[in-house]
Amino acid sequence: MEKKMFRQYLTLVIPGLIIFTIGIIVPLTLSVRYSVTSWDGMSVEKPFVGLQNYINLFKDKEFLDAFWFTIKFTIGNTIIQNVLALLFAVALDSGIRAQKIYRTALFVPCLISALIVGFVWLKMFSNVLPEINKIFGTKINFLLFGSSETVLGGLLIANNWQWVGYWMLIYLAGLQSVPADLHEAAKVDGANAVQRFFHVTVPMLAPSITICVVGITTGSLKVYDLLVSSTKGGPGRASTSMIYQTYITAINGRQYGYGSAMTVTLVLMLLLVAMLQVNSLRKKEVQM
Question: How many degrees, rounded to 5, is the angle at CA 156 between CA 86 and CA 263?
C-alpha cells in the first residue's frame, strides 16, 4: 500500500519537478556559468573573465541608477499597496452594501496583463485625464510619465491600481478568520474600535501581513512588463529597472555574460530580501 501511494506521489510530483527544472533550475545554472564569461550570446567562444563582471557592476552608473530606481519603486509600492489593501479589506469586511460588487471591481484589474495596464495608464495620463483640465479649467499635471520627477509616482499609481485588489483578498480572508469572541472580549474590557483594530485585528493578521509584504516586495523588485508598455525605461533612464537594464545589456547590447551577472545579482538580492523579511515577520508572528 505504501509503495502504491509512493508511486502515485511520484506521478503527481515528477511533471511539476521537470517543468521547474527546465524553466528555473537550468536557466539559472546557465546564467551563473555565463556570468563569469564575456560571451556575446552568439559566438562559440565564451572567454572566462572570473568575477570581473560582478566587479564592473558596482562601477556601472547605468546599473546603479537602475538599482536605485528599483529600490525606490519597491519601497513605495510595498508601503502603499499594503496600506491600501488593508484599508479596503477592513472597509469591505464592515458589512457595507454591495460588498461583492466592490470586491469584484477591485479584483478585476489583477486579471489584466501588466503590458495592457501600462498601455491603459499611458493613455489615461496622456489623453483621458488631461481632458479634466479642459472641462474644469484647471492646470493639474497629469502627464506623469513625461517627467523624470513624476514618472515614479505614475508607475506606482498604475501598479497599485492593478494589484491592490489581489492583496486585499488575502487580508480579507485573514480578517474573516479572526474569532469574533476576541472582539467581544475587547469591547467588554472597554476597548474602542481603533484599539480593537491595533491590539486584536492586526496581531491576528500577522500571517497575512507576512504573505503580502514578501509577495509585494519580491514582485516590485522584478518590475519589467509595466515599464515596457508605458515608459520604456524613460524619460531618459528615469524608470529603468534592474530587469529592464539586464534586457538592454544582454539582448540589445549583446553583452550576454555581463547581463547574466546582473541576473544572478538580482536573484541573490531577491533571495536575501525574502529571507530577511520572512525571518523578521515570522518572529513577530510568534511574539503576537
Answer: 105
